[in-house]
Design goal:
6-stranded antiparallel beta barrel; about 260 residues; Thrombin, subunit H; mainly beta
Length: about 260
């Protein structure tokens, strides 16, 4: 399967795609492949909104939690996960701005610390293409952190919970709220959803989760884009592993040499 990837901030209307047959060369058989649009779903905020936020500051009573709206530069997105221990928030990598993370009112709530974003813009990719799209930001001590979704469910990370076709999941975005369905297909670091999951611009980074037997929500991924008619998300298992690798790599990097 092939997919054309296009940012909503830079491209025209979404293309639904068509079913094409492509011949492979050499000894391999002819296989059908679908072409669809993969469209990152961050929303651009008007420059006037960005300029109205003023200097970065942390307001008393600010709270960082999964499912909240965040603004970076002209991008509006959704927080996907909050690690209470490290006081780290996560959203989509293509949502990053100038390094400062703010809430919907323009209050400073964190600073970008790391990201990966290889989502091609307008390119055609095979479903075997690995998609990485996450950003981590540190939350300062004066701001409270929570792992409770707007629905009231506690969002947890469980290494045993991974995307699989048919898995019942829900997605929360600041634009569409909570919608539920199932995982449609699992690809290389990302997956698609169907049967009720919906998304719009601004939902990027929002958590995709499975409701557990005890009523909590176990994160499965973070919303990334739409692939044809299917909402798509990056796998939390892959994103959290990449984030951990980047932290370890940064910590083990040799210190710059000093000049006597």
């Amino acid at each position: 399967m092939l997919a054309s990837i296009c940012s909503l901030a830079h491209c025209g209307p979404q293309h639904t795609g068509s079913l094409d047959n492509l011949d492979t060369e050499g000894s391999e058989a002819t296989v059908p492949r679908r072409w669809k649009s993969l469209v990152p779903a961050s929303a651009c905020v008007f420059a006037a909104l960005a300029l109205s936020t003023g200097p970065a500051h942390a307001a008393n009573g600010s709270l960082v939690y999964p499912g909240m709206e965040v603004r970076q530069g002209t991008n509006l997105c959704t927080v996907g996960f909050v690690d209470l221990g490290s006081r780290t928030g996560y959203t989509a990598g293509h949502c990053r701005g100038g390094g400062t993370v703010g809430d919907k009112d323009g209050n400073y709530i964190g600073t970008e610390t790391a990201f990966r974003d290889n989502t091609p813009n307008g390119a055609t990719v095979d479903t075997n293409h690995q998609i990485a799209d996450w950003e981590a930001f540190s939350v300062p001590p004066e701001i409270q952190v929570s792992n409770v979704l707007p629905s009231g469910r506690q969002l947890i990370s469980d290494p045993s919970v991974v995307p699989s076709p048919g898995l019942p999941v829900c997605h929360f975005g600041v634009v569409t709220g909570e919608s539920c369905g199932t995982v449609e297909a699992v690809n290389n670091g990302w997956f698609t959803m169907a049967n009720g999951v919906v998304s719009q611009k601004g939902d990027s980074g929002g958590p995709v989760y499975m409701v557990t037997a005890d009523g909590r929500a176990a994160i499965v991924g973070m919303f990334n884009s739409t692939w044809g008619q299917y909402p798509a998300a990056v796998s939390w298992q892959a994103a959290s592993q990449q984030a951990s690798e980047d932290v370890i790599s940064a910590a083990s990097a040799p210190a710059p040499a000093t000049i006597p």
